[in-house]
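Materials and Methods. Structural model of Probable peptidoglycan glycosyltransferase FtsW. The 379-residue sequence of Probable peptidoglycan glycosyltransferase FtsW from Muricoccus vinaceus was retrieved and submitted for structure prediction as follows.
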Amino acid sequence: MALSRADTSTLGRWWWSVDRWTLAALLTLVGFGYLMVLAAAPAVAERIGASSRNLFFAKQVFFLIGATTVMGVVSLLSPKGVRRLAMLGFLGAMVLTVATLVIGAEVKGARRWLNLPLVGSLQPSEFLKPCFAVVAAWLIAEAKTAGRKGWGAWGTVLGLYAMVALVLQRQPDIGMLLVVTFVFFTQVFVAGINMAVVTALGGLGVGGLFGAYFLFHHVRSRIDRFLYPEHGNNYQVDVALEAFGAGGMMGVGPGEGRMKTVLPDAHADFVFAVVGEEFGLLVCLLILGLFAFVVVRGMMRLLAETDLYVILAASGLLAQFGLQAFINMASSLHLIPTKGMTLPFVSYGGSSVIAIALGMGFLLALTRKRMSRAEEGAG
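The predicted structure was written out as tokens:
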């Protein structure tokens, strides 16, 4: 892109202030998303009797184009603009997530989706994750800045977290609740809260996990199948492990994989297994390295940051991005109990990929080099 440093247009200022290394890594992951949906989706569409073998591929291309656009446009915002958009997004996503409890489509005993005109299926809780991370960061920063007078901000952020937790528990979506809780605790820890408070919150989190095990049958089933594989149905995990074994170091070649024809979620939750079979260990490590690079690079950009709100918001977004990638890859490799969570930008899914793009757009906007206080506060 031939843009001079003297270019004072919006695009010119963006190009010379955005972290182009992080942007390149994210666009590379989007490229893998195109490649993997092309490899895995036709077999899934054929197996379920879809109207066209390319149905999922065509839809995902549309989703990825939309995601790239969202990420680019959002990355143009100032930190104040990020906060405003996140607040509006949180309010809208919260209303729609509550609506799933009343009018949501029930799938396998859970109500997480809305069927909307023109939009189609929407999982609004996906958008709660990045928006809540930013809103919580702002409120925690306000509370820290106000000192002893910050109890109102603390009460607000804890109330919002409790509201999100209650709605996700009612759906139920315990995996999503786990991610939101981890991100929130990360932000509280980074903010430098008293360690006794952090320890107490951590204890509540562990207690919540034990409670989920005893209260929710699907949680107990997944953990039991992980701990005692011989006592349950681990078909998808077993097929995924076979796929990794068949791929070896270099893979069997693009489009040559066989496990995707029998793996139900080959295009979504278990797309990493398709990568392992068709492209091998080296490409799996490359994808793992890209996720790690985005997280580490983002944290390094924050070392020189002095705005607590920016530090907390970016830390939360990075924690969310890294944890979601870890859960997907570790589930595929049977390192943790299975959880239906997509691999950011690589797995099929409209709500997920757009929400991830929104979060990464927030991150790129927050970690841009801001040349002046006027520019920092604009928007």
